[in-house]
Amino acid sequence: MIPAGPVTPAELVAALAARGWTVATAESLTGGLLCATLVDVPGASAVVRGGVVAYATELKADLLGVDPERLREHGPVDALVARQMAAGVAARLGADVGIATTGVAGPGPSDGHPAGTVHLGLAHPGGTASHRLDLTGDRAGIRRDTVQAALAAVAALLGGTPDAR
What we know:
Blueprint: H1 9-19, E1 23-27, H2 33-39, E2 48-53, H3 57-64, H4 68-74, H5 79-93, E3 97-103, E4 117-124, E5 127-134, H6 139-157
Parallel strand pairs: 1-2, 1-3
Antiparallel strand pairs: 3-4, 4-5
Helix pairs in contact: 1-6, 3-5
């Protein structure tokens, strides 16, 4: 479950550091915005391993190990694809937590999904999870809201942050 309140990047970096965990990002619709948001925090290098922007569908398989058959059958806007992206980036970059974003930023539909359809993938020492988001707004707003939801999802995994509980 994603916390209702906003989570700042600084809070998340501090929570990861307190746990002694590292994070890596696998991004499609956010195009690097999630990783950039994290590395804006002073001291982020202690927890951020890096990120992979796999915007093109075939790169999700080539760089992140997503099942190519799954991509052919379901396309990139899919919960299992998000989980596989997260697991792939965590494994390839040696992180405790992988967070992935895939979906449709808009302005129009793509692959049969309306703008605002987003799947977050999480990989962590206990397994993988995904969260579906149905967002509204313009392209920039959907991307921004996806980043905030991703921060909140990792915070929830960590048990929240002081301001997110």
